[in-house]
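Table S7 (text form). Paired inputs.
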Amino acid sequence: MGAGHSHEPGETLPPAPPDLRRIVTMIIVPLVVATLIGLIVLWPRGPSPQQASDTTQRLHGEIVSATPTCPREVPAQPGGDCGTAQVRIGEQVVDAVVPTGPSAPVVGVGDDVVLIASVDAEGGQRYAVVDHDRWGWLLALVALFAAAVIAFARWRGVASLVGLVVSFAVLLVFILPAIVRGEPPLAVAIVGSAAIMFAVIYLTHGVSVGTSMALLGTLAALVLTGLLGLLTTNLLHLTGSGSDEAAILANVLAGVDLRGLLLAGIIIGTLGVLDDVAITQTALVGELSLADPTLSARQLYRSAIRVGRSHVASVVNTIILAYAGASLPLMLLLVTAGTGTRDVLSTQVMAAEIVRGVVGTIGLITAVPITTALAAWAVARSHRHRADHPHRHPEPDAA
């Protein structure tokens, strides 16, 4: 792909002079080392806290036959005329009950389902269908998603998928286990987010001064987001409690820092959008410099920031609507209860959602000028070096 048509920071920014690469390396390497130290210090060690003993077991099977759903006032009973199903689990076929109610699964012959096996009063096994088993269709959907990304973006799409795998690996192997074992959620989220950013940005967009500028802008915005989140949760006296999930966590994980968990969620939720904005602004500065190499750092910044404002204006609406959509059932519940708008918005749960949206959006806004300024400075410095050394061949651009 030609440089004039590329949207990768490492390809659109001019080759960086040696002194600029040294400066960037002196900044990036300590940050990588600090992230590695944070991973080592906060790495989850020891056994996971044990939950209370449970005699139930989750199984997977296929519906062989089923009776009609029971009326709401009639409970399903094993062997009854309604609300029962025969389920094949491996080579065994068992009788199971199918619960009734608005949220109960509606099953038919051939459906893959999830069952709960428990011990009844007589010491025998009792089976109940609790949900559909969606694993196969989820794998098919993920495969379709991967195929679409690779078909459109080709090798760059493969790199982005590898970055996505790394993100989930850090989340599942480090962030969640560390929080479960009692490490401070805010520190875990910052270290984990930094590790994700180093891996994802460099894997997806290559190692260069341009991607390093985007990375520095993202990390700076993440730190500001964390500090602002800490300030707002203190001012609004938010504890992270008030939701059903928080109540369950407080019982399952004694001593979990719910307020820190709220802050960690804000940081991780903002991460992906910050990456997008930072890379876009860095690539935009590079494209402007290719179109007119005589532009100064100030001119590059002013031109790129105008586009950045339009980008932020559209993304802000996207972020707020995404949070509002996720909170829609809760808002309906509060409004149905006859609660006024002021009281609805100032509840612990709704205030926490507002803080998520507002703080995340402010973090996004700060990423634009920071990243644009860093990229403009790097481009202007590269052009000055080329003007001062017109006969020197630039070395490959690498951070």
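Next pair, protein 2 of 2.
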Amino acid sequence: MATLQSSWAPEPLDLTESLNDEVWTGSYENQMEIPGGFLWAKNDAEFLYMAVDFVEDTQNDPGTGDYFWLTFDTNRNRAITPNSDINYGVYPNQPNKMGKQLYLGPGRWTGLLNTPSDSACRYDFGASPNSTTPHRIWKLKLDLSELNVSLATWWYLPYTFFGLRIHSSAPNLNYDTPANFYTSFSNLHRIQFSRKPTIAQSLQGPEIGSVGLIPATQIDTTTGRATTASTYYVKTNNHAFGGTLNLIGNRLKMQAVSDMAGSQYYRVLHREGTSGSFENFTSGWTNYRLVDTNYIPVNIAPNSDGYYFLYNPSSYDFSIDDLLMQFDSRLLATGLHQFQVEFYSYGSGTYSKVSNAIQTLTLYIDNNVPQVSIDAIMHGSQQVNACGIVNLNGNTTGGIKVKFDAYDGEGNLLSYNVYAKYGEGHTQSLRSATHADSGIALWQGANNLEAPSSGVYIPPVTCAYSFNVVAHARTTNGYGQIGHNSASRFITILK
């Protein structure tokens, strides 16, 4: 087993860009040698970008049976979990079209899944820093949510396990790394993700620089909701906050305070709403400090006086740098909350305030998930109960109508999707909607909806069907979307 270290991608990578371009800087330095070539990796908060630098394949013959397999152990248990672990690969004779399938067991998979995905691949042929002789290169963009990877997991450094096959028909090459990875996950390689981006100083708040990866300047001072640019690491559009939140300090401010004589401390202050007095706000968490080549857990909590020790940013390398506080926002009521930070020096038994707080960070906290339900499945005027059987008797115009709810009282609905699932992972979408398309700042969704919105759903084959409603909250923990709810109902349909 080997470890591939992913470096941070400061902007989304375009798969058309050459491995010699500056955007891949950092991945070559951390590359992993594999049979036949090298493997590169970068990531941002949304995607893993990988490059397979297949230097041994020097024949430019895409579409002749050349392909790759890329397997991920999505629950990181080093065992094949049916209908969970993923294998990516290219469509036959279509080198720029990537599909995915789920494992059913050792060496067994579902068919290619017909589900929307932002993951993609691109074939290239040319030189790279590893070889000036033109050769095959695969470049991939993989959605972290598909891999079940989150950069906000504070209890461990984000990672996953993977295996890779690269195949060439001419020359005749076939490499699996590790060997037989598709029959046993016990020796899969590890990929370690980066969560250390650099946020431009101009975007940071003067004391609380950001919440996770979202700069404080991108959080509305009145509504407490975040809106970032479409090209930013974390895409938000009037998002509320929820889950475990990291308040990241402004490094220049923290460094300036740390450089003062004596030991330095700070307090985090909080109030619910936007009026009244601020009170000392405390929490405890674990961060990981780099010592030699290992990350050592460091338990962080306020001292008996309610103050936190300020670690010098230039002297300590943590897995989450400049972390002022981590707290569980689920302990707070839904609505507006405000935070401040005060810095102190300590000497002769006395805490002396370095300066008064000059920043008030306002956050709208909402940990409620959308309300979803399947109210009825209708076949004509007949309601079909769970586990019911519908006989269409060859009727090509009769079908199914799903009545459902997808509603968020706080107006923080991101999207909903209604779909039918049958057979070995086949999926058909019946109706969907998004906040971006609604044109409403605080989109609640609705109750008493129907899918499809017009007409009926005609099932393609006789099978057991599950009808599903999934709704996602427009809520972020500073690293990505969090919060969803779902409902499903199973029936059998005879064509």
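The first helix runs from residue 251 to 258.
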